Predict the 3D structure of the following.
Amino acid sequence: MIDLYENEKRLWADGFNNVAGCDEAGRGPLYGPVVCASVILPHDFVLEGLNDSKKLSEKKRELYYPIIMEKALAVGVSIVSAEEIDEINIYEASRQGMLRAIDNMNIKPDYIITDAMPLKGFTNIPYESIIKGDAKSITIAAASVIAKVTRDRIMYEEDKKHPEYEFCKHKGYPTKKHLDLLNKYGIIDGYRRTYGPVKKLLDEERK
């Protein structure tokens, strides 16, 4: 069984007291922003059952969100729009979003750990990129919950504005139902126009 505190304990032992974990939510959707979060946890932080947000039910994530917000030493969130994603691509948007989330914290970290996002040349703070970090680090797992809950709440608001697209159900991800609704109602602001299904529809409209 993976010890989610292993990376933090190692870094704390090396003298890095404020370790920031970073993650994002929403790389895959056709609609809406990518949301990035950065979290610094106290050394005595314990939250039974906390793990990668993708492994948690929505009910669990909503339960954990206020606890993390209350107990964390610092939380930073950034929202990168569909327009910016189209401009710089989703990978760069995720990286820039993480850097902004770090900047948005009220404590400057002395070490950063990310979920598979290299930051070399983008920050002078020491960091490491951990593959599947949200399932290996309690701090990244906490950031993943903050990012996911924040993005889901944005999508619920979008659903109120555009109920015909049923964003509350698929959260913008390219499910069959979403693709059917996209084809039926067309492209509106908030869609990522460089993503395959949206780009294909745009190309068809131009013909």
